[in-house]
Amino acid sequence: MKQSRAEVQKRQNQILEMFHGNDALQVSDVSQILRVSEITIRRDFDYLEKKGYITRFHGGATLNTSREGISPYTEGSPLLHSREKQMIALAVSSLLEDNQTVFMNAGTTILEIFKAVRSKHMRIVSNSALAGSVIGGSSIEFICTGGIYQEKTCSFTGDLSTPLLSRIYADACVLGVDGLSSRDGITTRTYSDTMLNDLMVKRCKGLKIIAADGSKIGRTFSFTSFPLSAVDILVTDSSADRDELSRIRDLGIRVILADEQESSQLVLGTM
């Protein structure tokens, strides 16, 4: 049966995600993981090479370093794990209150949270360069940290971002992450992200919330931001590794599965 373009794009986004942390991928391995034919993966690789994301070699491909970390928003392609991130955003919004000052970093999940809190009256301090595009006409007072613009992540980072944060205390902090592990804590792909993440946590007087879809749970990247002992709540979805979630709960962290929470609310609403 012929797949829709949306299904094909979703699979191709999954392939790009698989390249992170891998120097190269083999067609046969991707085929087994995604449970589609090797012919299908070869077509996907051909398409991604034409777009400039990867370079093909016999039997596999490597990620072009100049394209690594490109945000799905900047490319206009469907957002990977978009439904899960939207549900996570709604769950996070329910944890935040009017008149709070909230720290948020940058990323696709955080951008969904900006959308989810549009009706609230609050002040948000963030290094996201895309936030302004989704909060126009809302009740949000937005303060941008400024700093050095990072095209790959559509965010501001570096020493120029920290003086503002050093003069603010927040009532809550919501952070998107690249990886979260019970053993290794919060990690990122890029070192420049760690400075702002650390400072946001340290300057937060209230709830410290991690918003991460299930694909991030149990993963570890090169740079450590902060230990899990600093986290109060993890909001994720039911695709996350259950054993890893159990270990995270054992550390005293409240875990909210956004999609299961939504299902429960729908059941209650029909009673």
Task: Give a short synopsis of this structure.
The chain is α/β, with parallel strands linked by helices.
Q: Quote the beta fraction.
A: 15-25%
Number of strands: 15
Largest sheet: 7 strands, parallel
Query: Which structural category do the helix and sheet elements fall into?
Result: alpha/beta
In the predicted model, the low-confidence regions spanning at least 5 consecutive residues are 67-78, 264-271
Shape: globular
Please tell me how large the radius of gyration is: 19 Å
Helix-strand pattern? HEHHEEHHEHEEEEHEEEHEEEHEH
Give the topology.
Blueprint lengths: L4 H15 L5 E2 H8 L3 H13 L3 E4 L2 E4 L8 H4 L6 H14 L5 E4 L3 H9 L5 E5 L13 E5 L3 E3 L4 E3 L4 H4 L4 E7 L2 E3 L3 E4 L3 H11 L1 E8 L11 E4 L6 E4 L5 H9 L3 E4 H13 L1
Parallel strand pairs: 4-5, 4-9, 5-6, 9-12, 12-14, 14-15
Antiparallel strand pairs: 1-3, 2-3, 7-8, 10-11, 11-13
Helix pairs in contact: 2-3, 5-6, 5-10
